[in-house]
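Hello support,

Our group uses your service weekly, and this is the first time we've seen a run hang past the timeout. The protein is Oxidoreductase molybdopterin-binding domain-containing protein. I'm not sure whether the cause is the sequence or the server load. Input pasted verbatim:
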Amino acid sequence: MSEQDPENKRRDFLKSGAVMGGFAMTGSAAIISQTAMAQDEVLIPFTDMPPDFAGPPKTAGGVFFQNTQFIEDFYSRNEDQFYVVQHYGQPELNTNTHRIQVSGMVDNPMSLSMADIRRRPKVEIVAGFECGGNQQGIYQGLIGNALWGGCRLRDLLQDAGIQYGGTEIAFYGADRGMETIRDTEVEQSFGRGLSFNEAMQDDIILAYEMNGEPLPGAHGSPIRLLVPGWYGVTNVKWLEQIHVQDRRFSGRFQARDYVTLSRRDIGGVERWEERLVTKIRLKSAITRVTRSGNSHNIMGFTINDGTPLRAVEVKIDNGPWQRAEILPGATRYSWKLFSFAWDNATPGDHEIVSRVIDVNGQIQATPEELPEKISRWENYGQFTRTLTIT
Ligand SMILES: Nc1nc2c(c(=O)[nH]1)N[C@H]1C(S)=C(S)[C@@H](COP(=O)(O)O)O[C@H]1N2
Ligand SMILES: [Mo]
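Update from on-call engineer: The timeout came from a worker crash unrelated to the input. Re-ran successfully.
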């Protein structure tokens, strides 16, 4: 698979105006009317999915994923749709007394209350993300899309005055656990690092609102990091400290867990390589098939790192790739829901699959094209679904 360099990213951003022009923001009512099931619409069960498939109930401290078959809304509901992953349980923080410390190589160390944070200019951004461990076995349920509100990280770092040589920004959550590291048990906080250049992107926020509500406990109340276009692990919840340093941050969830081991062509040399889980890889999946009268409709999502898309396509059995329609609401960093009118679906068993193509011509890989991989991260291959039309 081709990789993207920063030059390309800049070009994408310039192109994005033209390519994404058709996906302008519209009111959420319009979005829902296109994706919610109509009165006479019936769900066609997938034969690759148990009919009673259900994820675990949402519990404090537990993992939760959504049943993607029921994705109807562009915005995932906070209460029972947006997935949850928490590695050290769910801390309960007091919004009124919580403080965020900015420390390390800064001229102006800070200790900010939530009131201080809310006084800063508010930025809103639509962003979808998935866990790096999202996969076909759970029908891609570790995913969600929301409208986030918060303050810009870059401006905060500028106010803190990063000193010469401060090249790494470490982010710590308030959740802690014991880890055995080289035979020694030590207490660790959940943490992630961004390089200075990564952290200064202007779309990164410290989010205290999710879909217009205060950030819920499971999603990091009162405040979390949100790095649009990156896998979920980057978005440190229950944020309590931002530390500027001159060495790479190498905590468990940065440098040991959430590392993909795969065999790749590295400039003509085949190597088994370990890579950090960072930007979301180009992916789409079919999530739902419905029938209304004699016509069938296929729905799904795409997710990626924000590179504009050229097309989403659907293939039925051994037929040609056909273009699907991207539904309204899509923004650069949101997931993109798509819909495909399946005309003349014939009775019998069928295999259906989707693929997404970005403006650089990168095509979502088939499972065979994926690099050989030994780790459960980054499952972005094309996902074939099966069903029976009666
Ligand atoms: N403090 C903290 N932040 C965290 C985590 C965590 O365990 N602790 N889990 C990460 C992982 S692995 C994912 S996938 C996302 C999930 O975010 P969500 O629960 O809001 O969907 O949060 C990330 N941020
Ligand atoms: Mo994750």
